[in-house]
């Protein structure tokens, strides 16, 4: 589907055409799933946040001012839903007592610790850096695709990604020094 067709579907969806919204959903589902799955690391939670995202997007599409930014808009909603789910993970993990941990949870502590360390390193990034890392590392977009989505230059995207990964690397080095 080319950009003109996408914009046409967005405009129709804004006017209540659910079939056009479904076409948009079908177009972006795989990318959204990949983003949510790599961000959350859990298939069921990825599907849940996508469902919530699609419901919110369907309800709010009338308020989308620039139809050409639909993809960025829906990914921003998805990113927010993923952040909320990560907060739930952390909250649930903090409420576990030593007595309630199972042997499986204990053997998973190392993987969980690495996950938390990466999430902490990710949290030091500014919003633009987070979005670029999420799109390129978690969702698998290249710099050209990311630049197009964010209405930026490829070189800017690559340098921002590089700086963000360096920040994360430096943070992790300092954590474990």
The share of residues in helices is: over 70%
In round numbers, the mean pLDDT is 83
Unreliable stretches (pLDDT < 50, length at least 5) are 97-107
Q: Major sheet: size, sense and barrel closure?
A: none
Written overview of the protein:
The protein is an all-alpha fold. Helix content is 80%, strand content 0%. It contains nine helices and no strands. The chain has helices at residues 3-14, 18-40, 43-60, 70-95, 103-107, 109-123, 127-138, 143-150, 154-175. The N and C termini lie far apart (50 Å). Residues 97-107 have low confidence and may be disordered.
Give the topology, please.
Elements (H helix, E strand, L loop, with lengths): L2 H12 L3 H23 L2 H18 L9 H26 L7 H5 L1 H15 L3 H12 L4 H8 L3 H22 L2
What keywords describe this structure?
177 residues; mainly alpha
Could you give a short description of this structure?
The protein is mainly alpha-helical and 177 residues long. 80% of the residues lie in helices and 0% in strands.
